[in-house]
Design brief:
2 domains; D-Maltodextrin-Binding Protein, domain 2; elongated; three-stranded mixed beta sheet
């Protein structure tokens, strides 16, 4: 048995070396790698710098600091009569440059539209229904080019003062005002699940999406390349010359392994470029602020503390074994789809038939991607409870070999599955890879020499049964 296998696979190293060298020398590979690397560099740099330019990192770098109001003139028109002179003095002491005026609201708005930056009008009007006040509307009109943070801070001051005065007028003692503002939150938590914060929910939503998409592109794109390479050589009669010195099974093994190494090297190269882009732009972008926040306990207050806790909770259990398993899953997933693609490529006799023959393969890949990612979307309401980890459809995606290559890496990173569960899922995937390899070994020689009409998947299975 061992000698039969050895004879059937003799020469795969030559095919491997030839396919690898020829593919990495092609213009499409070189240009594609350069373009994807540049796009990755721009995306990583843009994600790092653009939010910083828009002020997204100010809450991190300036944790615990109040916004300085730079408005030099603020007109307050209280159409509700709720605010008192005492309230106006309180607003002034808080940094609001209230300015007296005899002009009407419409005149002030017209004046502001032509004024220099730093001026604003804040109006307070009652919202009534059937003679009863239901609430108050606070509107802020500002001159062009005025600082947005100052406008938000001024509006918040007046809004808070209206809320304060409304509560006091209802008979609540000033010293009890803070107690009257206590908030009530409601959440649903599945028994036995961990409660997630909003930041943990975001991590558990976006990480599966990103990993599923990246692995789908790598595994699926290179699988199609295997099919195209085999179909091209078969239809151009190169395969007939190749088979005079190498057995058919050795051809498919050599090509699949060569493309697997190519995809892995390209992925590592793109990752290195992305990491370098992040390292270069971090001092000027939000990435640097996040790293500083993670390493500086003084910055870990308020919302920043919740972010740090969410990151540590989601990724705190990472180990070298995690990345080894992710690597193994990637290799097995690639082999699973690439072997199927090799069968598809060998089943056509004309290049014109390849696109139609690849449709079931394409549907299979898309099915795996959607099963890996979309169960999270179907249980969005449970993302704040951790219950998404027990969603039956998502659990199914971890063990189903079509979707497990896309679903398992994010489950490992987020700790959604225990180590024994991951090992079981990997063993199931490995078993199906062996199953596909056995089918390839049984029928590939007949398929690669077939020059009639395009073989369908059912025909290939029948061949495997008769072999």
């Amino acid at each position: 048995m061992k000698s039969n296998v050895s004879a059937a696979t003799r020469g795969w190293k030559k095919v491997f070396g030839f396919t690898f060298v020829q593919y990495v020398k092609t213009k499409s590979f070189i240009v594609g790698t350069i373009i994807v690397s540049l796009i990755t560099m721009l995306i990583v740099g843009g994600v790092n710098i653009i939010p910083k330019m828009l002020g997204a990192g100010e809450e991190i770098s300036g944790a615990g600091q109040d916004t300085e109001i730079t408005l030099n003139a603020v007109y307050l028109v209280d159409g509700s009569g709720i605010l008192t002179d005492e309230d106006a003095e309180t607003l002034r002491s808080a940094g609001l440059a209230l300015t007296d005026t005899d002009k009407s609201e419409s005149e002030l708005i017209d004046e502001l539209s032509k004024a220099e930056a730093g001026k604003a009008l804040i109006t307070v009007t009652p919202q009534e229904y059937d003679g009863e006040i239901l609430g108050y509307a606070v509107k802020t009109f500002y001159s062009p080019d005025t600082d947005g943070d100052s406008i938000d801070a001024a509006s918040s001051l007046v809004t808070g003062m209206v809320q304060y005065r409304n509560i006091i007028d209802l008979g609540v003692a000033p010293e009890d005002f803070a107690a009257s503002q206590r908030t009530v939150t409601a959440s649903k938590i599945q028994a036995g699940s961990d409660e997630w914060s909003v930041f943990e929910s975001m991590i558990n939503y976006f990480v599966p999406m990103v990993f599923s998409l990246v692995l789908f592109i790598l595994i699926f794109a290179y699988g199609q390349t295997v099919a195209q390479s085999i179909a091209t050589e078969k239809t151009s009669r190169v395969m007939e010359l190749l088979l005079t010195s190498v057995r058919p099974l050795a051809v498919v093994i050599g090509k699949v392994l060569a493309m697997g190494l190519v995809s892995l090297l390209q992925f590592v190269l793109i990752g290195v470029v992305g990491g370098a882009s992040f390292a270069i732009t971090a001092p000027f972008g939000i990435g640097g602020d996040l790293l500083k926040m993670m390493s500086d306990p003084a910055a870990q207050v308020g919302e920043n503390a919740e972010i740090v806790e969410a990151v540590n909770s989601s990724f705190g259990s990472l180990s070298p074994l995690t990345f080894i398993l992710i690597f193994v899953i990637f290799i097995l997933g690639f082999l699973f789809f690439a072997l199927i693609a090799a069968l598809v490529g060998a089943s056509v006799s004309r290049m014109e038939d390849l696109a139609q023959a690849m449709q079931p393969y394409s549907l299979l890949g898309v099915l795996g991607f959607y099963l890996a990612y979309f169960p999270v979307m179907f249980t969005m309401e449970s993302l704040d409870t951790g219950a998404a980890a027990t969603n039956p459809m998502q659990i199914f995606s971890y063990y189903f070999p079509v979707s497990s290559p896309f679903a398992l890496p994010s489950a490992l990173l987020l700790g959604t599955l225990s180590l024994p569960q991951v090992i079981v899922a990997v063993l199931i995937l490995a078993a199906f890879v062996v199953l596909v390899a056995v089918i390839v070994a049984r029928v590939y020689e007949m398929i690669i020499l077939h020059n009639g009409s395009r073989l369908k998947f059912g025909d290939i299975l029948k061949m495997a049964g008769k072999k």
